[in-house]
Amino acid sequence: MPDSKVTINAQTQVYGIFGSPVRHSLSPLIHNSLFSELKINAVYEAFEVEKEKLGLAFEAVRALGIRGVNVTIPHKEAAMNFVDEVPEDVDRCVGALNTVVNRNGKLFGYNTDGKGFLTALREELSFNPEGKTVLVLGAGGAARGVAFSAAHAHAERIFIYNRTHDRAVGLGGYLEEYFPEIEIEVLENLEALKKEKIDLVVNATSCGMHASDPSPIDLHLLSAKANVYDLIYAPAETPFLKLAKKCGLPCANGLGMLAAQAAVSFELWTGKREGVRERMLEVLKACRF
Ligand code: NAP
């Protein structure tokens, strides 16, 4: 929430997030905190937008001069249809957006998840995917972003495993099309990993969000010491991360990615970068969710 030092007035610029459900989102908290701390006259709201109303919501962005929005589940892919331009190649390949910038009535779409993921790997695990072997668990929107950013960062090999095999095959084929130089392998079962050296395992599934969920992989299967990243941040320690710690593997949860992707959006909207990611991460760590 903006603090009392910031007055909402006729000059206040409006930002927000479109999603459904969206009321649990932490984005209003982190963006409003930074607007307030940096004394930017702006406010960030959560807008519950149903699938069939996404077009109307983007019309409202144009009509009302809303300066920027984040887009979350289930609208990340559909949002591609409502912007005027997607400037970055990698975002067009991923085929999903999470950030829209309104520049004088023209809407520009970006996906900051991939950059956020790579920043979190660098900051929290000192890991760079270049030349490395990466295992992506999942084949949904987040897995797609993770796999494309690992490929874009020149991973040498990418393994994909998903509960629904056909979705993994779809993602693997799509990646091969864009990155023919990278070895992409879609796994039918995880046993096949016993003879592989994996440098990074990423949980990009929703498995771990509920108390009864198991780890999506038995990390004992891995022959060598891998880094472990879980996109889930609530709970802070999933069974996957508990197992990683038990196995003595370097690991981190998704909070760093959440802060880093938000900081890239914030920079696109305001031009402010210095210290923003670090401050957003502090705000997130201080809040109970
Ligand atoms: P999504 O598109 O709905 O995809 C969900 C994925 O999880 C699918 O691959 C699904 O497999 C798999 N899955 C779901 N339940 C499972 C289970 N019990 N066992 C094994 N696999 C299971 O969701 P998403 O947008 O990709 O998000 C995935 C996760 O990433 C969520 O937890 C989300 O909160 C998190 N996320 C975090 C950040 C961050 O900044 N830290 C950013 C984006 C997303 P099937 O194909 O078989 O259904």
Short description, anyone?
By secondary structure, the protein is an alpha/beta fold.
Tell me about the largest β-sheet: 6 strands, parallel
CATH fold-type name of the largest domain: Rossmann fold
Query: Domains counted in the coordinates: how many?
Result: 2
Strand content: 15-25%
Helix-strand topology string:
EHEHEHEEHEHEHEEEHEHH
**Which structural category do the helix and sheet elements fall into?**
alpha/beta
Q: For the largest beta sheet, what order do the strands appear in spatially?
A: 8-7-6-9-10-11
List keywords for this structure.
35% helix; Rossmann fold; alpha/beta; single chain; 289 residues; 6-stranded parallel β-sheet; 11 strands; binds NADP nicotinamide-adenine-dinucleotide phosphate; 5-stranded mixed β-sheet
Summarize the structure in words:
With 289 residues, the chain is of the alpha/beta class. It has 2 domains: 13-111 and 259-285, Leucine Dehydrogenase, chain A, domain 1 (Rossmann fold); 114-253, Rossmann fold. The chain is built from 9 helices and 11 strands. The protein has helices at residues 27-37, 54-64, 89-94, 113-125, 141-152, 165-178, 239-246, 255-270, 276-286, and strands at residues 13-19, 42-48, 68-71, 99-103, 106-110, 133-137, 157-161, 183-186, 200-203, 227-230, 251-252. It has a 6-stranded parallel sheet, with helices on both faces. A 5-stranded mixed sheet has the order 2-1-3-4-5, sandwiched between helices. α7 links the parallel β10 (227-230) and β11 (251-252). α4 packs across α5 (141-152) and α8 (255-270) packs across α9. It starts with 12 loop residues before the first strand and ends with a helix. The mean pLDDT is 95. Residues 73, 113, 138-143, 162-164, 167, 204-207, 209, 213, 216, 231-233, 254, 257-258, 261 line the site of NADP nicotinamide-adenine-dinucleotide phosphate. The site of NADP nicotinamide-adenine-dinucleotide phosphate (NAP) has 26 residues, from α5 and α8.
